[in-house]
Each structure stands twice: as C-alpha cells, then as structure tokens.
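Worked example 4.2. Below are the chains of a multi-component assembly; read each line carefully before continuing.
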Amino acid sequence: MIQIAILGFGTVGTGVAKVVAENARQIERKLGEPLQVKTILVRHFKDGPFRQLMTDDFKRIEEDGDIRVVVEAIGGVEAAYEYTKRALSAGKHVVTANKQLVAEKGCELLSLAKKKNVNYLFEASVGGGIPILHPLTQCMAANRIDEVYGILNGTTNYILTRMVRTGAFFSDALREAQAKGYAEADPTADVEGIDAGRKICILADLAFGHQVNPENVPMEGVSRLSLRDVKVAQRAGYRVKLLGRAVRMPGGGCTAYVAPHLIPEESPLASVEDVFNAVMLRGNATGEVMFYGRGAGEMPTASACVADVMEALQSSPRREEIGWSADDSGFEDPLELQTRYYFRIEGSLTDAAMAFGQVEVLSEDGETAFLTDLITGRDALRQSKSLNILSCMRVLA
Amino acid sequence: MIQIAILGFGTVGTGVAKVVAENARQIERKLGEPLQVKTILVRHFKDGPFRQLMTDDFKRIEEDGDIRVVVEAIGGVEAAYEYTKRALSAGKHVVTANKQLVAEKGCELLSLAKKKNVNYLFEASVGGGIPILHPLTQCMAANRIDEVYGILNGTTNYILTRMVRTGAFFSDALREAQAKGYAEADPTADVEGIDAGRKICILADLAFGHQVNPENVPMEGVSRLSLRDVKVAQRAGYRVKLLGRAVRMPGGGCTAYVAPHLIPEESPLASVEDVFNAVMLRGNATGEVMFYGRGAGEMPTASACVADVMEALQSSPRREEIGWSADDSGFEDPLELQTRYYFRIEGSLTDAAMAFGQVEVLSEDGETAFLTDLITGRDALRQSKSLNILSCMRVLA
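Applying the procedure described above to all two chains together yields the following structure tokens:
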C-alpha cells in the first residue's frame, strides 16, 4: 500500500482523489500495489466521502513518514511554494499541475528535489491530460529541439472558434465561454495570454535547457482582437489562433512569446477547435510532431497528476533528465525573429507598398489588409511607422 | 562513456549511428556522459565512416561486457529474434523498431528481459518518431484505456491522399508512391494492412494488458478500394482512411482489426494527409488525445530508438510498466463491435431499405450508396445477404 497526500481540494485535488478511487485496479496493476490517498490538506473542512481524510495542518503531512508523494493542487505561488519546499525537504516526491509555480520557481524546486533525491513532476501543468512534457524530455531526448509552439489555452481557443463560426464579437464570445464554465469570472489570465505564457515558459525551459523567465516573455492575448481581422484572415485561407511559441535562435540563444497568429488552414493546428489544445514540437531528427486533446478539466488534469505520482514512485531515485539551468542570459527579444506579418491599415495598397515594397493583398475596401514578406519584428516596427495601423499579427509560416 | 552496438545497417541502423553522432551534445547533456557506437553487426562489410566498427560475428557483441545496449535494426523475425534473445540473456538492454518481432514475440522477449533485469523497449515500432507507446504506458497510466485507433501506415495514407486530391486510381497512386520511395517494390505488407495490423497489435497489447495475436486480427488493406467510394464519401463529408483499431469490449475482453473507414471530415484524423500518421488514445479520465507526425523515415525512427537507448540506461533496473500477459483468451471477433456501415450496392434505395430499414442515402445513380444505423458486423453481414454489394466499410462514429 502506497500512501499519498493532496494539498488543496478544488477542481484538481478532487479529481485526483476520484481518479485514484475509480481507476484503482489499473493503477494497482501497474504499480504492483494499491495507491491510497491518506491525507488531504484543506483550509475549510467540507462534508463528503473524503471528510475523514482532511486536515488543516500541513505538519501532519510533512511529518508523516508513510506519505511518499504529495500532490500540490493549491495553485498560485505563496502557500504552494512553501509547502512544496517543505514536502521536498522532508524527502517526499511532489507532483503538481501548478503552471505558475513551475514557470516561476521550477528551476529552484527541481534543484531542491535533486538535492533530496526525489522527483518534482508537473506533466499536468501544460496541456492538462495531454502527454507533452514527458514525450518532450524523454521520447525526444535524442533530438535537438528547435521549436515548440501551440494552442495552449482552451478558453481563448473556444472564444476564437465562436468568433469564426458564428461571427460573434469578442465580448459576446467571452460571455458565452463564461456561461459554459470555460472562462472564469475574472478571465484576465486566460484572455491576456498569461496562462499560455506560463506554459510556453515551461516548454521552453525543458526544450532548451535554460531558464526562461515569464517577465521577459511578451504576452499578448486576444482581448483586442477584432472580428474584422478574423474574417479577413478566414476569407484568405487562414485561421486566427492564439499561440505560445518558443524558438531556438541561430546564435544559440532562444526566444519565446505569446500572441495571436494567422495560421494557414492546411496546418494541423488550424483545425484545433473549441477548448482543445495542441502542441507542436520540432526536433532536428523527428521533424514536427503534434499532441492534441483536452487541455484542461478535472479528470484529464487529475489523471496526468496521478500518472506523475506513479512515475515518481517508479523512477527511483529520480528522473534526471527533467530539469534546466538557472542561467537565463541566452534569452533574446522575439522582435529578432523573422516571420511574415499581417497588417490591416487605414490606407491604400500604395501606402502598404511604400512601407514594405511588394506585399500580398488580402482585402482592400477603404482599409487595406496585407501580408509582408519574411521580416524581423524590428523591421516590421520600423517600416510600418508611417502607416495608420489598425492591427498587426505574425503569420505562422 | 556508454557503449552500444547496432545490429543491421539498413535505414534504421544507419540512422541510429547518425543520430548518435549528430546529436552527441544533447545526448551527453541528458545522459551525463557520452554515448558511443562501438560495434555494428553486418552481413556484408561496406566502406564508409563506420567501416572500422563493423563485424559479421554476433559473438563479438554478445561477449563484449562494455556494450550495455543493443539496437536491433535487422527487421523480420528469425535472426532478429535469436540475437535479441541472446543479447537479453547476456544482460544487455535491447531496443528496436521491429514491429513484426514485437507483435509476434514481444511478450516472450519482455519476460526474458524481466528475468534478466534489463529493458526491452520499442517506441519506434509504432509511429516512427512520434511518441506513442511511452505516453500510453506512462503518461496515461492512471487511465483505463478504452480504445486506440489511428492512421498507422504512411504508404497507404499517401495513396489515399492522392486518390482524394487528384482523382487517381489506386494502381496509379501506388506507382506514384513507389516512384517517390514511399512504397516498396513489393508493397504487400503496406497495402494489405499487415504493417498497420502489427502496430495495432502492439498498441492493443499495451493498452489492454493481454496478448493480441496478429493471426487473430482481421487485416484488410486498401488494394480493393475503389475511387468511386472515395468520391462518394468525400461528397458526403467523409474521408476514407485506413485505420487500425483496438477496442475494450463491454464484457472485459477486447478486439482489434485493420480496415478502411469513412471518417467525418471534422475529425482531427480526417486532415492527416500524405505520409503522416496519427494515433488516438481514449482513456476514461483523459478522454481522447491524439499524437501526430511522420510515422516513418530514417531519422525520426532512429531518434526514437536512441531515446529508448537513453531511457533503458536511465531506468534502472527496468521499466516495470511496459509489458502484458501472455493470456490471449479475451480476444473477441470484431464482428461483435457496433458501428455504422457504409454500403454501395447494385440496386435501389428500396433494396437498401428492405435490408436495413431506415438508411441515410449518400448517392443514388444506378448504384446506391448509403449508411446504416449503428449495428454489429454480424448483423451487417446477415442483413445484407440479399443485396448485390459493391463495397462495404465501417464508419468511425
């Protein structure tokens, strides 16, 4: 009998308890012995089938030698950070879906785990139940990873899908997402690209082996996206998607950012709709591989946490390949990246051509929408200075 | 310095040597020490940069205590089977992309590996460079896997893509695939569904935990597929794809088969084109997740083998969760499965309705193409007995 503890009993914590109970047979077959939730840390006691497991005193978990793995499902940084450090220091494996904590403190927590010879695993922090981080660090370990990009936030993808399908404005699509429970009452972290930003930082950390600090990563969401751009793009054979993207740069550094992109409709990412997520990894040997599924939700996220619990127990003493250097000096401004750019301007094709030379016109009706050739973000800024810009987005090549 | 041997120096073997050389830095960073190919087993010596590593005597590898991992890249069963047994018996990890050997002898080789406390790993046997087997056995370990299906053969998917895009007949599309090097001179294993069949057996073994014998799995390829069906399906909003499919049955058993299917065009599998592969796994907690990429090719397949070499070395003593029971008694005939069926008959809608009651008509012009309601394969056979059937396929719901 292997015993674990859960910190926090919200959506993820509850899901973990459910998965452990419902899939007990599968889990026991793989682990060789049963897995049991012994203790659940809560702030306020709640009635229900798990009432007798609850405590509001973390010490009861920290000092319990029978508890080998702790699932941190508190979220945020403060308490989660403190309890994670204490659990690792007490020689327990820690598993989490907490993308904010991993993006901000992952490197430090991983080195503490290393010192204590235990695992700190966080597959569920990116893509919910979709396996991404283990495939990246393990199955693609013989590759040099050159690029990672994807649709990392289900809420904004749902909003964009509604805008395309029904011609809804952003604000109406957001209200619909809130009514369906896909968006929170305060949707800032989702719609402003912060959630996707934390995930692309974690992916970049693991892909390139160096710390990518969230505060260096430009994050642009979909809140200022106009329905007009979505429609112009669609008529020209593109879909607008919010992408997190991390790229290895020619000089050996890397960059990362979150922003809406135009994606050609033939791209496998273009048909990722509703709350689904998809992540593309590009390795120098494997080429592009894509992972697709539900990026959030109680049971998918919880099942990824429980798989990490099992992995932590089976990887003795610990998975060495999950980690990265604290050195963040190789980070470059994403404005150094070359891409094609989409512009919609108040002005004529002549204005566009004056600024960029040859362009590809997408629409011309009072305003002009066009695509530039491949240019850096810096050049796009500089050359467009004289234009009256209504919107500007990168194009995924 | 960790030393390995490669058996066979065809496409995969050569690729493994290349990946080890080209990505030496990435591999060393993850392993903590350099990886080196010490010996290559060949039947005929070839000149080139690896000439001095070659031997035609397996004993030189078997008896070399410095060689910790053997990559079996011979293919087929006979020699590959013998050398794999001898390498495992000598206490060496074995890694392979050999789907035939794993499908036929995997269970036996895994128990030999277990007895010798070493790993037998074969991520590259399904989906080439796309991570599938590790995500299935490890990242989704907390799920009950209820279904696995996918486009498992790139050659046939290329042929089907050409038939849809250019209206080519099967025979012309096959010749085109051969000219491009996507199909072998003898394309039987690909076009008759045997290659996909071996892969679905391996996926079913791992997903359900019991041996699924290739000889029990009905395998139907695309060689008898008519362009007419491809076109009728397309006009009705479906794509024809060759799927391998394995399903957990209500009674606790399972079934598996390979056959062309009609797939609704909204399905993420419908847009998987050319030589790309995609596998969908359905877990009771995670829901459907999909893995997509190049399912074959020298470098993708080789990089998966090298990742397995690294995994074998890092998982000490061995990955316990990769394996299944030799008991194959739970296998049920796929005719027990319920699906919708597509029929094209020489006859009228009245004939179709007489046989199946209400049907959904797809086309009516001399011949009649229609979809049935959800029925078992047995009922489909029985009810269609009086009809003059031109073609019949399952529909993916």
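Take a moment to check your reading of the output against the notes. Chain B touches chain A through 55 residues (CB under 8 Å). The mean pLDDT of chain B is 95.
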